[in-house]
Design brief:
Layout (H helix, E strand, L loop, with lengths): L4 E12 L2 E12 L3 E6 L5 H8 L7 E6 L2 E2 L4 H6 L1 E5 L10 H11 L4 H15 L14 H12 L6 E5 L7 H16 L3 E6 L10 E6 L2 E6 L1 H8 L4 H12 L1
Parallel strand pairs: 3-8, 3-9, 6-7, 7-8
Antiparallel strand pairs: 1-2, 1-4, 4-5, 9-10
Pfam family, one: ABC_tran
Protein name: ABC transporter ATP-binding protein
GO molecular function, one term: ATP binding
Length: about 240
């Protein structure tokens, strides 16, 4: 039987001194799935993601990403994933074209492949009029959409999105999620952190972190049924009250 999980995590823990930022979390993510990693700010989402993408070493536990061990194969993980952060994704002092070229090179694409990808990206996003503009001059919504497309340049198995829609307007958020659906339909696994509980409705499955622990994990429909509420925001509020 072919293994369909592209992320497997067991008792993954991260401590900073006596503080436990991520407390023995266990879950798996299936190939092509849109997996929502939810929680309030400070819940441990970003710390957990940093361990999975190979830029922070776990304190204990086990995890594999794209069949590579987070302890021993972090460089292989980086080659097989895409990553987009809300705080840093593109260079503001480079043009759109220069950013695409730069990151294509970082991902190891040939000049010919970079040119092909750039032309395709420009056409798909309608960037013809701004391809030579500095990224720093563009609205946040454009930056986020371009950054997501750049994270997919090398056709990674998994793309990690850390709070990708923070600060953008509702219309842009919806457009961004349409891009996520397209990536998922093309076979890319999407692992997305967010503190917008309504975005959980767009995911195949979601986990909810509270104070470093995963307190709930299932499809949005089943979580709403379990907690007898009508929205994922209500699930989160009810879960938080139960823990208190």
């Amino acid at each position: 039987m072919i293994e369909t999980n592209v992320i497997q995590v067991e008792n993954l823990t991260k401590k900073f001194g006596d503080f436990i930022a991520v407390n023995a979390i266990t879950f798996e993510v299936k190939r092509g799935e849109i997996f929502g990693f939810l929680g309030a700010n400070g819940a441990g989402k970003t710390t957990a993601m940093k361990m999975l993408i190979g830029i922070s070493s776990p304190t204990s536990g086990n995890a594999k990403v794209a069949d590579f061990d987070v302890f021993t194969n972090s460089e292989d993980i980086k080659k097989n994933i895409g990553y987009m952060s809300q705080k840093f994704a593109l260079y503001d002092d480079l043009t759109v074209k220069e950013n695409i070229t730069f990151f294509g090179g970082i991902y190891g694409l040939s000049r010919k492949k970079i040119e092909e990808k750039r032309q395709l990206l420009v056409e798909e996003l309608g960037l013809q009029n701004i391809v030579n503009e500095l990224v720093g001059s563009l609205p946040l919504g454009w930056k986020q959409k371009i950054a997501f497309s750049v994270a997919l340049l090398h056709e990674p198995k998994i793309v990690f999105l850390d709070e990708p829609t923070g600060g953008v307007d509702p219309i842009t958020r919806r457009q961004f999620w349409e891009m996520i659906y397209k990536a998922s339909n093309n076979g890319t696994t999407v692992f997305v952190t967010t503190h917008y509980m309504d975005e959980a409705e767009y995911c195949d499955r979601v986990s909810i972190m509270v104070e470093g622990k995963i307190e709930a994990l299932d499809t949005p429909k089943k979580l709403k049924e379990k907690f007898k509420v009508n929205s994922m925001n209500d699930v989160f509020l009810k879960l938080a009250r139960n823990i208190e």
